[in-house]
Amino acid sequence: xxxxxxxxxxxxxxxxxxxxxxxxxxxxxxxxxxxxxxxxxxxxxxxxxxxxxxxxxxxxxxxxxxxxxxxxxxxxxxxxxxxxxxxxxxxxxxxxxxxxxxxxxxxxxxxxxxxxxxxxxxxxxxxxxxxxxxxxxxxxxxxxxxxxxxxxxxxxxxxxxxxxxxxxxxxxxxxxxxxxxxxxxxxxxxxxxxxxxxxxxxxxxxxxxxxxxxxx
Length: 216
Hints:
InterPro entries: Glutathione-S-Trfase_C-like, Glutathione-S-Trfase_C_sf, Glutathione_S-Trfase, Glutathione_S-Trfase_N, Thioredoxin-like_sf. This protein is 54% helix and 7% strand. It is built from 8 helices and 4 strands. It has helices spanning 11-23, 42-47, 66-77, 88-118, 125-141, 156-170, 179-191, 196-205, and strands at residues 3-6, 28-31, 55-58, 61-64.
C-alpha cells in the first residue's frame, strides 16, 4: 500500500496514519529521525525538496503534503464516499475545511508554538491572537453541526483538524474554552480510526518540553 516516511510526533503525519486506518489499509512506516538529520540527506531531499514529512511513495508516485496524500489514498482505496463525498457541494465544504486547517488553523498554531519549543523564543502575543482567532472560527464551524464539514458522518476534514487540535491539547491549550470544539473532540477521540497514533505521540511528548503558556 506504499511507504510512508513519517515522524511519530508530527501532527500532519498522524493525519495520514488515521486516514489509512479509516480506509483499512496498512502503510509501511519509515521513521525519519530529525535529531539525526535524516530529513536533510540527499536521498530524502530527492523524495521531497521541502525536506518535510510526511512523504508517501506508492509505486512510481511520490507525494508530499499530508492532506493531498489523504485525498489520494481516499480516492484510490475508499469503498464508499463518506470520508470524501462525491457530491460537489459536500466535497467543496470538506475541501474548504482542509484548506482552513492547512492554511490557517495549523499554520497559526505552528507559528505561535514552534518558535517557543525549538528556538526557545518568548511567546508572541500577536501570534497568539491569530491562533485564537483561528480557534474561534473552528468553534463557529461546529455550531449546530456534528462534524467540521457540516456532514452527518466523519470526513477526512475531521481527521485533519483533529490532529491539529490534539497537538494543541498536548501543548497545554485548554479546549474547554470552546464548547463546540470540546464536544466534537470528545466524539473524535472515541470514534476516529487509528486514534492510537495520538496516544503514542502523547507518550513520546513526555520526554520533551512540549507545554507552553497561553496566558499572556
